[in-house]
Amino acid sequence: MQQIKPGIFYEDAYLGVTLGALVFSHGIIIIDAPLRPEDARAWRAVLTNLRGGPARLLVSLDAHLDRTLGTRAMECTVVAHQKTAQVYRNRPLIFKGQGTESGSEWETYDDAIGTRWTSPDITLSDQMTLHWGGTPVVLSSHPGPTSGSIWVAVPSAGVLFLGDAVTPNQPPFLAQAELPAWIETLNELSAYKDYTLISGRGGPVTMETARQQQKYLKAIHRALERLAKRNAAPEATANVVPSLLSEITFPEKFREQYTQRLQSGLYQYYIRYYRQENALEQPEFEESES
Fold first, then answer.
1. Average pLDDT over all residues of the chain
2. How far is CA 121 from the centre of its chain?
3. What is the residue-wise DSSP string for 113-156?
4. Is residue 86 packed enough to be buried (19+ CB in 10 Å), middle (13-18) or exposed (0-12)?
5. 12-26, 96-110, 175-189, 190-204: lowest mean pLDDT where?
6. 208: exposed, middle or buried (Cβ count in 10 Å: 0-12, 13-18, 19+)
7. Is 271 exposed, middle or buried (0-12, 13-18, 19+ CB in 10 A)?
8. What confidence score (pLDDT) does residue 103 get?
């Protein structure tokens, strides 16, 4: 576990996503959950030793399985966006797995199948401020990675937890993404230029990394638009995977996983926005030279 500022920590040692913990006199605000129950128990023990107040609140930054399969094992109140809660309501009570290999972390955990969900107890639509002793904590909606993605900011400490808005050295998850909204959301980081930014998949990142993420998302969007203009079949999305992978740097051991992630995400995104009879309309954004 790494301390960012006094009482503010992140942890990237568990399978799943990078976690956060904000320690206050009223209790601890936990950001996302470990994937495995044994990791959740270990994380709860670590949090107990931080000696915050007795209350516990877990914030789910979006509905991705890597960060939500383990929420039940954390045994505390859960807060999330309303659209994240809707995703929970559409899931079966017991997780039965998915047929598509998506390049997610949960797919490497054999015991994920059979997990019971814990739906959010509290939801927000736009913004929520938590007062747990000391400085306020602001939860705010920032769609892009999913429609229910949120950020957690501690303004007085200058720390911002971004979730999957920035995924350094790995391809983003696209199946539930809204690319134009995501690109615009990253413009909002200009208001946090002096903050310490914490990615949900990798820990601290810089503003330059965020700009590179935005550039990469624009490249993905242009590739999909070109396919759509040719009325290409969804299977044609696999053809752009090698070039997109070549634009990011990552250890070779992850090549198969990241190839699966892009293949699955591009295919599902393309069908959702370009090939369905009632395809979703994408919001417009202004394309720049970058």
1. 89
2. 19
3. TTPBP---SEEESSEEEE-SSSS-EEEEE--SSSTT-EEEEETT
4. middle
5. 96-110
6. exposed
7. middle
8. 83
Q: Which residues of 113-138 are buried (b: 16+ CB within 10 A; e: fewer)?
A: eebeebbbeebbeeebebebeebebb
Which residue reads 């107040």 in tokens?
Answer: 53
The beta strands (E) that lie in 122-262 are given as 122-124, 127-130, 137-141, 150-154, 159-163, 196-199, 203-205
- The one-letter amino acid at 214: Q
Structural domains of the chain ordered from first start? 2-206 (3.60.15.10)
| Token pair 């070779």 in the structure block, residue | 252
- DSSP at 180: H
Residue 278 has pLDDT above 60, yes or no: no
Render pLDDT for 24-77 as a digit per residue (tens, 0 to 9).
988 899 999 999 889 999 999 899 888 777 889 999 999 998 899 889 889 899
| Phi, psi values for residue 263, rounded to 5° | -60, -50
Query: In degrees rounded to 5, what are phi and psi of residue 182?
Result: -65, -45
